[in-house]
Automatic annotation (TrEMBL):
A Pfam family reported for this protein in Swiss-Prot or TrEMBL: SnoaL_2
Keywords: Isomerase
Alphabetical list of InterPro entries matching this protein: CHP02096, NTF2-like_dom_sf, SnoaL-like
NCBIfam families: ketosteroid isomerase-related protein
Species whose genome carries this gene: Sphingobium scionense
Start and end residues of each SnoaL-like domain: 9-120
Full protein name: Steroid delta-isomerase-like uncharacterized protein
Signal peptide: none
Single GO molecular function: isomerase activity
């Protein structure tokens, strides 16, 4: 496995946990492709920055104990972690926010090009999230 790739993905999640959008963006390729569990892919740092601003407004989230694996070439990586969160502001098409907490298992996949993250693909169970928020 590529130690540099492992360090890159861990740095990404460290910046995420600090809600450090600039730190996250610095780790990305200019033409990064973000593939969310639901919705349309976003292309480029500007689109990803807009996504981060939206997420930081609506949610307060922390990645817990990420396990990161990478291929020998360091061109691909995968992570699994638990996500602890609080739903702060109602997000369009989702239940009303009232500070509900949630705990989700998340999987993520990365492409790495020239030492930068070129693709992020996140996967979680939205139905589980909705059930937790509605019970909340």
């Amino acid at each position: 496995m590529s130690e540099a790739t492992l360090a890159l993905v861990h740095a990404y999640y460290d910046a995420f946990n600090r809600q450090d959008a600039e730190g996250m963006l610095a780790l990305l390729a200019d033409d990064v492709r973000h593939e969310p569990s639901q919705g349309v892919a976003r292309i480029g740092k500007a689109a990803f920055a807009d996504f981060l601003a939206h997420m930081n407004r609506c949610y307060a989230e922390t990645v817990i104990d990420p396990i990161v694996l990478a291929n020998a070439e360091g061109t691909r990586a995968a992570a699994e972690f638990m996500l602890d969160g609080r739903y702060l502001v109602t997000d369009e098409g989702l239940p009303p926010a009232a500070g509900q907490t949630y705990h989700l298992r998340v999987g993520a996949f990365f492409d790495i090009v020239d030492g930068r993250i070129a693709r992020i693909s996140n996967h979680y169970n939205l139905a589980d999230w909705i059930a937790q928020v509605e019970a909340g």
